[in-house]
Amino acid sequence: MSTSIQSAIWRPAASEGDARAQPAADSVKLRVEDATKYYHTSTGSVHALESVSFDVRAGEMVCVLGPSGCGKTTLLWSMAGLHPLTSGRILIDGASVTKPHPKVAMMFQEANLLPWRSLIRNIELPFEIKYLKVADHRERIDALLQRVGLAGFDHKYPRELSGGMQQRASIVRSLAVDPSIMLMDEPFGALDAFTRDEMNLLIQRIWMDTGKTIIFITHNIAEAIFLGDRIVVLSPRPGRLSRIFSIDFERPRQLDLVTKPHFIELLVEIKRSIDHSGGKGTSAVD
Amino acid sequence: MDKALQDQIPTFGKSDKAAQEVGLSNWSALTSGPGVRTWLEVAAIALVAVVIVGGAEILLTVFEVPQYILPTPSKIVTALIVDFRFIGPHIVITVEELLAGFAIGGAIGFVLAAVITQFPFVEKIITPYIILLVTTPMLALVPLLILRFGFGSEPRIIAIALAVGPMVMINSATGFRRTDLAKIALARSFGASTLQIFLKIRVPMAMPMIIVGLMVGSIFGLLTAVGAEMVGGAEGLGNRLAYYSSLIRMPQFFAVILVLALIGISIYVLFFWIGKKWASWEA
Question: Are B153 and B274 contained in the same domain?
């Protein structure tokens, strides 16, 4: 198994390593430019992000990694158009994001299914909101349900499903509208370790089959290395871009990757870099 | 061994929170708990009912309690059947007034609840008036309303609406305030407009409290209907109560009370089943 590891530091210097870490301009799907965000709360101002900039290439899986307080969720919400940046901007296909983009789907830390609707009605929610006809997409929905292992659970209610099944349902909901970008905010954090491994394999499989651009937030270094083409590391308070690592393990990655020496070396290196930049809350393997 | 622990292992974490929230199926001591499970429990309930009614019959007869104080259950039921043609039309009138006042008061209450939860400033303005309406027994206003609107149904319907409205409003507003930011963020991320979020997220989420509000409002409305009819007007069950008690025809008087109790129970059961259908996801 080829195991070249490269860590590239983001700075505008021309070197071999940088070319790998920063994608070519014409294939950039999503660009973060100088993203800065201040929250105004009742107790004062919170500086969540400071001048974060990086690009995401079409079809890439980028993991955003960092301890709590590094603004990962804030960044993702800005990409989703849910709240505005104080300064800087986010560009999708060259256009600035001011409100939720129709081709972007978001997944949250919990499955976030509506408890008063059955599974299939939950999956139909985005279609209702966007005024699309579900019938046109019926085949894709059925195929997705089949693939995540929820075929036949159409009429179950969320309370009848386990956490893992609910999160799978929300994967189907996100993919059913055929987005080109998926934003995932620690979607497997609430699941137990076994289920999380399964879900990581599932996401990798889906990503490899569909070629979507995925931005995946996690605080779990092993998960980030397993899933990502590149890892964007943010340091906390305020959230700043710390480093970008390029991950070159070949695909599809198997679960036993986490036991390989090169994987462990990379994990240790990433952890050390996070600890140095002030983040004490990152877990290596959770 | 503790019976409560025997059937379930508690799950720690977020799922517990939902079980504690007040919803239609656990909002009072009357409706909490697993409910009737075996024929034995049904038999026990029936037995107690028989004991109470039969016991009342026996005790009232044995102690020769005069009929003008408290008639025996058998006399009450007999009076209801024999005099039904005198009582029946008034049932219709009372129920019609209740429905009309409930529809008006409930609709206004619901709309107001939606408005004040969207615009917090409006809430600050109208809260004092709402509290005034809740604390003032509407019966006291009926004579004034009769002066203005005459002796027909209108004053009573208005009084009923004024009694129902605040109840529906307060409970619905409580329901709307239970925002779940995650669900709203979810809908927004798909591009939902504010109206879509209201209809698809806020209203279903508030539904248990809305139904509680409707149920409590309708009971208040029934009380106000009967009271208003007693105070003024020539028709309705409240009027019958005043009529029979003035003639000291107590079996008929209590027969009307029995009818009112049955109406109240029907309202309760109706909303309980509505809640089961529309709000059971909370259970």
Answer: yes
Query: Is residue B53 located within the same domain as residue B169?
Result: no
Q: Considering only CB atoms, which chain B residues are within 8 Å of A121?
A: none
pLDDT > 90 fraction of chain A, expressed in percent and rounded: 47
Q: Say whether both B54 and B94 belong to one domain.
A: no
Number of domains in chain B: 2
The answer to whether B200 faces chain A, any CB pair under 8 Å, is yes
The pLDDT score that the predictor gives to residue B275 is: 86
- Find the range with the poorest average confidence among A128-132, B67-71, B254-258: B67-71
B248 three-class SS: coil
Q: Is the pLDDT of residue B61 over 90?
A: no
* A213 sits in which H/E element: strand A213-218
Cα-flanking dihedrals φ and ψ of residue B136, to 5°? -85, 125
CA distance A267 to chain B (A): 30
Tokens standing for residue A200? 């990581």
Cβ distance of B183 and A114 shorter than 8 Å:
yes
Residues of B in contact with A117 (CB under 8 A): 204
Residues of A in contact with B191 (CB under 8 A): 99-100, 102, 129-130
- B10 within domain boundaries: no
What is the spatial distance between Cα A203 and Cα A120, in angstroms, rounded to a whole number? Answer: 21
Among A112, A161, A178, most B C-beta atoms within 10 A, so best to mutate, is A112
ipTM of the complex: 0.82
Residue B16, min C-alpha distance to chain A (Å): 12
| Distance in angstroms (rounded) separating the CA atoms of residues A208 and A204 | 6
Domain topology for A5-103+179-276: Rossmann fold (3.40.50)
% residues pLDDT > 70 (chain B):
86
Q: Which domain holds residue B46?
A: 35-65
Is B4 among the domain residues? no
Q: Looking at the structure, tell me whether residues B52 and B192 fall in a common domain.
A: no
Same domain, B122 and B246: yes
Strands A87-92 and A95-96, bridge-based pairing = antiparallel
Asked if the C-beta of B183 comes within 8 angstroms of chain A's C-beta atoms, the answer is yes
Query: Which one is predicted more confidently, A8 or B154?
Result: B154
- In a shared domain, residues B139 and B58: no
B186 interfaces chain A, CB cutoff of 8 Å: yes
Same domain? B92 vs B218? yes
Q: Is residue A243 within a helix (H) or strand (E), and if so which, with residue range?
A: strand A240-247
| Beta carbons of A223 and A191 less than 8 angstroms apart | no
Instruction: Using an 8 Å CB-CB cutoff, list chain B residues near A104.
Output: 189
Task: Tell me the pLDDT of chain B averaged across its residues.
Answer: 83
Chain B residue with Cα closest to A127: B190
A80 touches chain B (CB under 8 A): yes
What's the confidence (pLDDT) of residue A174? 93
Closest CB to A129 among B14, B191, B205: B191
We report the CATH number of the domain holding residue B265 as 1.10.3720.10
What is the C-alpha to C-alpha distance for residues B7 and B4, in angstroms, rounded to an integer?
7
Query: Which one-letter amino acid corresponds to residue B264?
Result: G
Q: Does A116 touch chain B (CB under 8 A)?
A: yes
Give this prediction's pTM: 0.78
